[in-house]
Design a protein that fits this description.
Low-confidence stretches: none
Strand content: 15-25%
Mean pLDDT: 92
Number of helices: 10
Radius of gyration: 20 Å
Number of strands: 12
Distance between the termini: 95 Å
Order of helices and strands: EEEEHHHHHEEEHEHEHEHEHE
Shape: globular
Length: 288
């Protein structure tokens, strides 16, 4: 008599340094999806430090790549997401209607492809030759800031996440993302797409867990150069902004908008790439 087969249940892990790892604390958080309860890795302060270290290590290699190559890599991510759309739709459908899930996946893939096209254009768009009243050339051009800490909106879990992550990557930054607390399963699905794209290990790191445990250590970390906070909890956001002052981080802080906002044209802009770039100005003597 053949024994009944037990299904292999998926372990929902963190994505740090290009690898899927359990929280160093071994903790998980119960996540209810209808009648089913899934256990998702619950990141700790130590996991935040590990993710920042992985991002900092990856930054030099990522910014050294040509802009064209970064665009190719981001476009490859869109290709992977297209091939995995059924996985994204299943994850999103746990929290809503299948039709809404399909619409969100379409919008997220389109947004990734849109930002892929900006990778090799943002520098020209932001660079200028400045008029000066002396015999010099004065030229300004953008440079990446480094490690960007991102707190993604609770919803839409996929579209909101890529709308914040991709501008940072297109600007040659690297990122540590605190994913949606309401829907961490979709963030894990995106991490699997990242792992199967050509994105170098450590360029994007995704943490699942409770925001009130993760945002403060991310904001306090001296190796994080900027924060992009998109959340409803103003108390946690204000605390993060205050902690960021200790290391003079750039902070972009917004109350989480309604889900409909992320589908609008205003939710994608080269200005979002510019937010986490610095403008470097060079003076050079001009010939007679």
């Amino acid at each position: 008599m053949t024994a009944q087969r037990l299904a292999v249940r998926k372990t929902q892990k963190l994505y740090i340094g290009g690898a899927f790892v359990r929280s160093e604390s071994g903790r998980t958080m119960a996540h209810r999806c209808g009648e089913e309860v899934l256990h998702v890795a619950r990141a700790s302060r130590k996991d935040v430090r590990d993710a920042v270290r992985a991002a900092r290590t990856a930054w030099n290699g990522w910014r050294a790549r040509t802009a064209y190559n970064r665009g190719q890599i981001v476009y490859r991510l869109a290709e992977i997401m297209e091939s995995r759309r059924a996985q994204f739709e299943r994850a999103l459908a746990l929290h809503g209607a299948p039709a809404a899930a399909a619409r969100e996946v379409d919008a997220a893939i389109d947004r990734v492809a849109w930002y892929a096209g900006w990778c090799d254009k943002i520098e020209q768009w932001l660079s200028t030759k400045n008029p000066v009243g002396s015999p010099h050339f004065n030229v300004s051009s953008p440079e990446p800031m480094g490690v960007v800490g991102i707190v993604a909106p609770d919803g839409p879990a996929l579209l909101g996440l890529v709308s914040l992550l991709l501008p940072a990557l297109c600007g040659s930054n690297v990122a540590v993302v605190v994913a949606s607390q309401r829907d961490p399963i979709t963030a894990v699905a995106l991490a699997e797409a990242l792992a199967n794209s050509d994105l170098p290990a450590g360029v994007a790191n995704i943490l699942t867990g409770y925001r009130d445990e993760l945002v403060a250590p991310l904001a306090r970390h001296m190796e994080v150069n900027a924060l992009d906070l998109c959340m409803r909890d103003e108390t946690v956001a204000a605390q993060a902004a205050e902690l960021a002052c200790e290391s003079v981080k750039r902070v972009r802080r917004r109350i989480e908008p309604a889900p409909a906002f992320w589908y609008r044209e205003a939710a994608q802009s080269p200005r979002w790439i510019e937010k986490f770039m610095e403008i470097k100005t060079v003076w050079h003597p001009a010939g007679a």
